Amino acid sequence: MVPQALVDQITEASRIEEVIGDFITLKKRGVSLLGLCPFHNEKTPSFNVSVAKGIFKCFGCGKGGDAVRFIMDHENASYPEAIFGKQIQY
Predict the structure, then answer these.
(1) Do β-strands 55-58 and 32-35 pair in parallel, antiparallel, or remain unpaired?
(2) d(CA 69, CA 90)
(3) How confident is the model over 5-37, as pLDDT tens digits?
């Protein structure tokens, strides 16, 4: 079991725009960042990242969440793998 204090510390230290920006190109639009959704095929950007709230939401396919959820969905990773990386041993 991963201690909640450690999870909170990792989550607070990770910047969602940097985590998601490693996988897709994000452009500033107003107070949000916008890009093409990596979870479905689209030509017009519907993938929004709110830096202030620390969340993402695709208005095309409905996926959303925080940086950990993005890694879990994009990399097909478990929760511990998304937090610590795939090199951990169970």
Answers:
(1) unpaired
(2) 20
(3) 887 887 778 899 999 999 999 999 999 999 999
CATH class of 4-84: alpha beta
Task: Give the predicted TM-score (pTM) of the model.
Answer: 0.85
CB-CB contact of 68 with 81 (8 Å):
no
Length of the chain: 90
Instruction: Check: CB of residue 60 under 8 Å from CB of residue 46.
Output: yes
Lookup: tokens for 75: 């990399």
Report H helices in the chain: 4-13, 16-21, 67-75, 79-84
* Strand order from edge to edge, sheet including 47-50: 27-29, 32-35, 47-50, 55-58, 64-65
